[in-house]
Amino acid sequence: MSGKFARTTGAVLAAGLAAAIFAGSAGAEEIKLGAAVSTTGKYSTNGAHTTNGYNLAVRRINEMGGVKVGDKTYELSIVYYDDESTPARGAQLAERLISQDGIKLMLGPYSSGLTKAIAPVTEKYGVPMVEANGASRSLFTQGYKYLFAVLSTSEQYLSASIALAAEMAETQGKEPSSVKIAMAFENDSFSQDVRAGVVADAEALGMKIVVDDQLPPELNDMSATLTKVKALKPDVLVVSGHAKGAATAVRQIAEMKVNVPMIAMTHCDSAQIIEKFGKDANYTLCATQWAPTMTYKDDVFGSAGDFAKAFKEAYDYEPPYQAAESAAAVLVYADALRRAGSTDPDAVRDALAATDMQTFYGFVKFDETGKNTAKPMALYQVQNEEYVVVAPTKWAAAPAIWPVPTWAERDK
What we know:
Blueprint: H1 3-14, E1 20-21, E2 30-37, H2 44-63, E3 67-69, E4 72-82, H3 87-100, E5 105-107, H4 112-125, E6 129-131, E7 147-149, H5 159-171, E8 180-185, H6 189-205, E9 208-214, H7 223-232, E10 236-240, H8 242-255, E11 262-265, H9 273-277, E12 285-288, E13 297-298, E14 302-303, H10 304-315, H11 321-340, H12 345-353, E15 356-359, E16 362-365, E17 378-383, E18 386-391, H13 407-410
Helix pairs in contact: 2-11, 3-4, 5-6, 11-12
């Protein structure tokens, strides 16, 4: 994809106008998917990763001949609006896409909060929504029949870090219950669900939580929490505040020379902590839905590594997992459309419910609530300014470095 195309797409989205991205060739019949995604506002970074993933998958499917539905073949396109990172706006735009633009199949927005706002709308109209970036477990307790999520749910995001902390304690001859945890979370549905998962895991292992803070709404200063961390000396610091929160955490931990044996957070790669902070990002543990080194594969992109290469060629940066899971959502739609043999929303919904497939992003199989029950989370560590998978052990490329060297040791 040329830089000119990417810039043009961005300009159209930023203007808040509907746009058919990767529209089919002249005369080809299309299946239009709809999406309200953050082009502006606090989720704009991850909104861009989301649209890039969607667009790359649409482009690849169309280049391979489109989607055969019954005895007809269609190309895919996407009608976008900018939800401005605001749930109320997202709900309005979902209404517009369905009732005015005639969209019968929806892709999800970025974030759990936006997905929560849109899901009641798609459910009301009986329009399936395959979403890739709303992980809040509360999305799957509402009885929705038209909502399907390809990603692992939020309470699992930092579970691997708590399990790793217990494992590391045992290597020192200590009980997991000796581990002390400090936490700082954004006050949004996703991060609070991550917190609930950490709390449950810590309680199950008898670990003590010594700091339990909320990040400020602007996500631009966590010095109050880090001052507590320096005083109380926990064994683990966990942080979740989307891309902006991750960037703030890495920056201020370095500025304040905060020493913690283990630091784990969400959204490291989408925050581009290596690109922005270089060696200061080293040793950070990062929750991830996906990694290019994993062994998943499919017939559209090939392996996880093949997808990463195609994405880098298209957009000139390494794909964060938000882009990978977004592309996977489009693949799931294409598979369901083929199996349904129809573009009727109810027929597609039933086909989605019966999904059982492997993609470059992982296995996808939905339970009765719409959750993907077939794919676990993974954990990166930044080692020598590169992301290295350290958990689960089955996919680990290297062991985790623990404890994290102190800042005095790093500065030698």
